[in-house]
Design a protein that fits this description.
Layout: H1 3-24, E1 33-38, E2 43-46, E3 51-53, E4 62-67, H2 72-88, E5 94-99, H3 104-113, E6 120-122, H4 127-130, E7 138-142, E8 147-153, H5 161-168
Parallel strand pairs: 4-5, 5-6
Antiparallel strand pairs: 1-8, 2-3, 2-6, 4-7, 7-8
Length: about 170
Amino acid sequence: MTFKMQKLLVIQMMLMLYMVLWSQAGRAGEGLVAVDREVPVFSLQAMDDSLWQADSLRGKPWVINFWATWCPPCIEEIPSMNAAWQSLQGQGVGMLAINAGEGRQAVEIFLEKLSIDFPTLLGVADSLPNWSVRALPTTLVVDAQGRVVYEALGPREWDDEALLHRILELL
């Protein structure tokens, strides 16, 4: 297969993924899908060099967003996630952004343009499959016992009152 054909194939695959994502993307009112699964074993470095592991998520609810710098829907929802963080952080809910494995330099460059106000972790090659993430953005809500209880595929308005209420009910 020639390089040109490979490039065309990659572009086609990205377009298909983008279309699937948008066809499944809900808004705040459609919100969160109930799931029930364990948080996977993980060990990821944050942009501030702290180390996060599955045990770090015990004791309070967490909103965990999986994103990439090249993902328009991911970028679209960052401002509302920052606003949600402003509402949730004082109420005992944590938030994390886990990048899709693009590396520190790519994330640093991105964050200079658009900040993420809550901790940002550097994903690795197996981060998305370990968490059962099928598309970006995907956001998971973890309860205080460390179980994934909600999933949102596609962008949301994370500062929507109804959506925030569902998260706060986990307290």
